[in-house]
Backbone:
């Protein structure tokens, strides 16, 4: 077993296979995510243990907290396990604490992709402390194992009307590669300005696409109005049988044309055609977005909490206060409400 655990720590292919076989497979735990974040000051390591039911582990991203010796860690949507139980979590927590101390990490944040809150007490009992959320707490998930006719039957009548209307008008979707990233980004930036979130530089999105596309795990869809105007952009990443719509945007012109529902439906059926069994719409950040996504059927998934494994409490407290102040400043500088920050992964800061 020791050799199996070491292979998960050191071999990207073995780790990615473990992620895709785990109870909760997410793109943010694949080796491609670590590769995409490396240019922005994030190093990575994989911490793996076995509590008796098989491996449990997480890919931990790490970044220095400044000129001093300390750093912080983040295991987005980790830890993962094929069988998630109390003994495994205790073993993983011990291994992670030892690792964090060896790397002078003040804390490691984890926001497991476990549904519901029934397992939250396990983290607290294992020594984790509740923390500020970094990922959106709920999402809309669609089961793609059913036929397209069954999927269409679950779409709300109003949403179906908009899908059919845009299709009849001649709206269409094209799949692109790295060459369409500027178009993807322009749409994303316009959406951000209108919706109140802070976009990153185009290279950050390009690095994510390149890392996942190199493994055949990334797709970009651009939606067009009948005259060819691009108004919708989506980047879909896959992990196992999950297709996750991590990034997307719709211009005001696309919204006025009532074309957004058609582009969303196309993303769903194209993901099914590509072999995905689950379509993760990735978040329900506002009432309007939640209502829009719910119109395509599926089910609402509420994730459990966010937790910190604290190693150096005083420095971790300073980091928390500094990050909250930075988010408020960044939002105020862009004319956004500083008291209602949009949740975003620190791995993308």
Residues:
């Amino acid at each position: 077993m020791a050799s199996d655990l070491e292979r998960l720590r050191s071999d990207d292919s073995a780790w990615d296979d473990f992620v895709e076989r785990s109870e909760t497979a997410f793109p943010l735990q694949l080796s491609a995510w670590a590769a995409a974040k490396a240019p922005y000051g994030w190093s990575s390591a994989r911490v793996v243990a076995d509590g008796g039911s098989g491996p449990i582990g997480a890919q931990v991203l790490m970044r220095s907290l400044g000129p001093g010796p300390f750093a912080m860690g983040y295991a987005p949507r980790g830890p993962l396990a094929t069988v998630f139980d109390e003994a495994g979590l205790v073993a993983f927590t011990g291994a992670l604490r030892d690792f964090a101390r060896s790397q002078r990490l003040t804390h490691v944040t984890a926001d497991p992709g476990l549904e519901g809150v029934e397992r939250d007490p396990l983290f607290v009992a294992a020594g984790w402390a509740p923390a500020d959320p970094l990922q959106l707490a709920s999402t809309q998930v669609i089961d793609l194992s059913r036929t397209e006719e069954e999927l269409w039957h679950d779409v709300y009548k109003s949403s179906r009307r908009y899908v059919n209307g845009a299709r009849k008008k001649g709206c269409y979707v094209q799949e692109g590669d790295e060459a369409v990233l500027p178009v993807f980004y322009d749409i994303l930036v316009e959406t951000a300005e209108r919706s109140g979130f802070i976009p990153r530089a185009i290279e950050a999105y390009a690095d994510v696409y390149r890392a996942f596309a190199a493994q055949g795990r990334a797709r970009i869809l651009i939606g067009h109005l009948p005259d060819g105007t691009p108004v919708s952009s989506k980047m879909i990443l896959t992990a196992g049988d999950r297709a996750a719509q991590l990034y997307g945007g719709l211009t005001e012109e696309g919204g006025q044309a009532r074309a957004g529902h058609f582009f969303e439906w196309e993303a769903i059926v194209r993901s099914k055609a590509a072999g995905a069994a689950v379509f993760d719409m990735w978040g329900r950040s506002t009432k309007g977005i939640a209502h829009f996504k719910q119109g395509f059927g599926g089910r609402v998934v509420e994730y459990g909490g966010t937790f910190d494994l604290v190693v150096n409490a005083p420095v971790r407290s300073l980091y928390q206060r500094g990050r909250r102040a930075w988010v408020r400043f960044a939002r105020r500088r862009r004319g956004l409400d500083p008291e209602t920050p949009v949740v975003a992964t620190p791995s993308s800061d």
